[in-house]
Amino acid sequence: MEHQEVTLAVSKHEGAGNDFLIMIDLEDRVQLTSDEVRGLANRRSGIGADGVITILGPRDGGDLTMVLKNQDGSDAEISGNGIRCMAHEAVRAGLVAGGTFSIQTAAGLKRVHCEESEESSVFASVEMGELQIDDIDSVTRQVRVDIGNPHLVVVVDDLEAVDVAHEGRRLQKVREGGINVEWIQVLSRERLALAVFERGVGPTQACGSGTCAAAGAARALGLSGDSVAVANPGGILHVDLSGNEATLSGTVSVVADLFVPLRRDL
Fold this sequence. Notes:
Belongs to the diaminopimelate epimerase family. Pfam families: DAP_epimerase. GO terms for molecular function: diaminopimelate epimerase activity. The chain folds into two domains: 3-128 and 251-265, Diaminopimelate Epimerase, Chain A, domain 1, CATH 3.10.310.10; 132-243, Diaminopimelate Epimerase, Chain A, domain 1 (Roll), CATH 3.10.310.10. Helix content is 16%, strand content 48%. By secondary structure, it is of the alpha+beta class. The protein is globular and about 60 Å long. It is built from four helices and 16 strands.
C-alpha cells in the first residue's frame, strides 16, 4: 500500500491542565481518522492531549465550527475548556477579532469571549447554555446533569479518598455510551473541590462542562449558590449560574506551536 506524508500545523493549549491539540482546517480537508487522533493524543508515542480539536469555517450561524475528538478517538459533543482554548487559538491566528463571537458545536451554538493579547495566557469564558438536571438522589447525593453532554455528579466528604480511575470505570455502566463522572467536596457555599473521570479519556486535570455540571448539582442540592469557584486538580475555574444557564470562565494558555508529520494511506 502506498503512503503519503503530510505535515500538520497544530497548537497545544491548556485550561486548568485540561489540554488540547488544535488544528485549523477551515475547509475540512484533513479529516483526521480515529486512529490518527489516538496517535496524536497518545502521551507516550504522540504529542499527548486530552482531546483534539479541528477548527472549521462558519456553519449554521457560527463564526467558526468546532470538531472535538476525545483522546480515544471518539466524538465528543462539547468541552468547556476545549472551546475556550479554541477561542484563544482563533484570536491568536486572526480568524476572528478579539471579543465575543460564536462557535458552532455538536451541542449547539456557543458564545465565547476572548480578548486579543500577545500574552501566552489569557482569560476566556463561554456561555455553556442550559443545565438540565435529569435526576436528584438526595440520599446517595448523586445528581445526573446534561449540559450538551451527560454527567453524573457525586457529593463526597473526602475527595482524596476517591479512587477516581476505578470508580470512574465502574460508573460508566450507569448509562449506555458512558458518562462523565465528577466527585465534589463542598468547601463552602462559594467553593467546591472536584475530581473527574472523563468519558473517552479517563481521569483528567480538569473538565469544563463537568465543572458547570458540578456547580449546578451543588446548587440543586442546596449546597451552593449561583456563583462558585471550583478547584479542579489542575486549577480553579469559575461558574456563574443565571437561572439554568451556566457560564464558565478561567485562564487558558498556549503551550506550544508544532509541525507534526503524519503518514497516511493513499
